[in-house]
Amino acid sequence: MPLNRPRPLDELPPWWKGRQGIAALVVVLALLAGGGFWLLGGDGDGEDRCADDVPALVLAGSGGDRECIGVMNETAYAFDPRLKDVTDKIAAENRRVRDQWEKPAAGRTPVPYVKVALLTPMTASDSSVLPIEEIRSSLEGAYTAQCRANACPGLSAVNATGVHGRTPQIQLVLASEGRNQVHWQPVVGQLAGMTGGEHPLVAVAGMGVSVPETQQASDELAKRKIPAIGAVLTATNVNSERLFKVSPSNTDYAKALRRRLDRLPAEQRRGYLVFDSRDDNYVRTMRQAYDEVFPDYIDKRRVSFVGTTGPHTEGMPSLFFNAFNNICLTKSELVFYAGRGRDLADLVRSLSSRSQCGHDKPITIVVGSQGAVQQAGDVMELLKDSRITLLEASATDTEQWIRANGAPNGFKPFLQSFRDLKFPDKELSDGYAVMHHDSVLTAVWALRMVTGQTGRETPDVQDVFNQLTNLHDAAVVPAASGDLSFDDASDGWPHNKPVPIIQVPGGSGDPGPLYKTS
Fold first, then answer.
1. For residues 319 and 308, what is the distance between their CA atoms, to the nearest angstrom?
2. Pairing mode, if any, of strands 388-393 and 501-504?
3. With bands split at pLDDT 50, 70 and 90, how would you rate the model's confidence at 34?
4. DSSP code for 352
5. What does residue 172 show for φ and ψ, rounded to 5 degrees?
6. What is the mean pLDDT of residues 101-126?
7. CA-based Rg of the chain, rounded to a whole angstrom?
8. Is residue 312 within 8 Å of 279, Cβ to Cβ?
9. How many CB atoms lie within 10 A of CB 325?
């Protein structure tokens, strides 16, 4: 008689089958649609938070690439010890703004407020595009704009803020997207979740630098109807439906340089183009601008190298061997540089030994950038000794403007506020403080015009976007880097933005007529 064996249990279905599995998938997809923030942030028990008291900041990446990303508002977090002073000040001002609404002084009415985010890297490494010094000055400039908008207590009584209107007040939300901006997606998802409620996020400023990740973040913000104002974006192919910029474009940099270089004798106009070959919007469009504006200077004289900064550094970095040999062979006196500022010093070092190949003429390296000369600061003495000049088209010339030489009308009140807030003048040298101030100021100018016209306490993202295209004529923005105008036909670029030319060493001499964007 056969034994009665127990029937085998039915196999359990895969977890993803059935109603419970489908429900779990829906939750996962919803998290991904919202930016996947907590998927990056760990298991939710605080283990992967940057700090226990700032739940909106988490650690992302692995190994040496692990870094803090997310949003900081009223609780201070120093993404780097060198940022602590300014992040503490921003958090304190954000708390003061909240208290004016929730706990106004006796006899005072609550003061409405909205949020403006500063989306940018808050961490740095030796290979990141933005050094920590430029990140710090960016935050100082943005905080100065916030304080001017809020007439915060740190400003002296004699200093007129020069900012339109008094309300709503501004909370400056710091949004860290990682040193190479690769974590923009979860952070943009967080920001998109802040556009509703009583104190909505109405605009995003900063936007990092001109790399593919910036384009992607801009497009996602536009899908969420959020306007963005780039501070130092210059690549002509970084454009999006709701993206504005306060800097000149690379084409404008090249045109400003052309106006200056056309004053040279014809025999000194033989140029050589040295360009970074990586997938980087800034370097690619800077090369294109040189080709379009200087075809008679450059002709077919060109050579590539692989830069050292950013997320795309495949290949041998900073290889100027070919550039050195070709410039020696052609005896070129002009070098058109389309690369990141951190590699400029290596090019100077390479060309400083050109006497070994019989090139005994002075060389001018032409740059269209913001802060490239400052990033090459450790070769300033070498420039003099090797008869190399840097000629930079820039969005700012703070060294001259501090001395009241050709300063735009909006620079003086900015400088007074910057000093009132106990920031040293040396922090202005790279121009990042000025341009991030102007980025936040432009957002403030637009949102205050909305409330001034409608009487509503707080605008929304659509109101602010509409008003950004009306910032012209009587509504021009009196920015620190020059009066800025925007309309619906400018593709987000500013009209009338001055483009100063900086010459190192030796000052700018007679710069000739100042170029302004059209």
1. 9
2. antiparallel
3. very low
4. T
5. -100, 105
6. 95
7. 26
8. yes
9. 12
**SS3 of 350, please?**
helix
pTM for this predicted structure: 0.90
Q: Give residue 346's pLDDT.
A: 93
CA distance 145 to 151: 10
DSSP for 156-194 reads: -TT-----S-S-SEEEEEEEE--TTSTTHHHHHHHHHTT
CA distances from 417 to 100, 145, 420 (A): 22, 9, 5
Cα 197 to Cα 202: distance, rounded to the nearest angstrom: 11
Length of the chain: 518
Ordered DSSP codes for 464-516: HHHHHTT-SGGG-EEETTEEEB--TTSTTPPBS-EE-EEEETT---S--SPEE
> Which are the contacts of 491, defined by CB distance < 8 A and separation ≥ 6?
239
Number of H helices, E strands in the chain: 17, 17
Name residue, tokens 């590699």. 343
Q: What is the pLDDT of residues 374-425, one digit of tens each?
A: 888 889 999 999 999 999 999 999 999 999 999 999 999 999 999 999 999 9
pLDDT per residue over 78-107, tens digit each? 999 999 999 999 999 999 999 999 999 999
Strands of 501-504's sheet in order across: 302-305, 271-276, 334-338, 363-368, 388-393, 501-504
By the 8 A CB rule, do 485 and 494 touch?
A: yes
Look at residue 194 and tell me whether its pLDDT is greater than 90: yes
Residue 509 reports pLDDT greater than 80: no
Cα gap 349→509, rounded to integer Å: 25
Q: For 171-187, what is the mean pLDDT?
A: 97
Helical H runs in 36-83?
37-41
DSSP label of 127: T
User: CA 103, 106, 112: angle at the middle one, nearest 5?
Assistant: 45
Closest CA to 347 of 374, 398, 307, 381: 307
Residue type, 179: R
Task: Out of 161-165, 310-314, 388-392, pick the least confident.
Answer: 310-314
Question: 52-76 burial, b if ≥16 CB within 10 A, otherwise e?
Answer: eebbbbbbbbeeeeebbbbbbbbeb
* pLDDT value at residue 481: 98
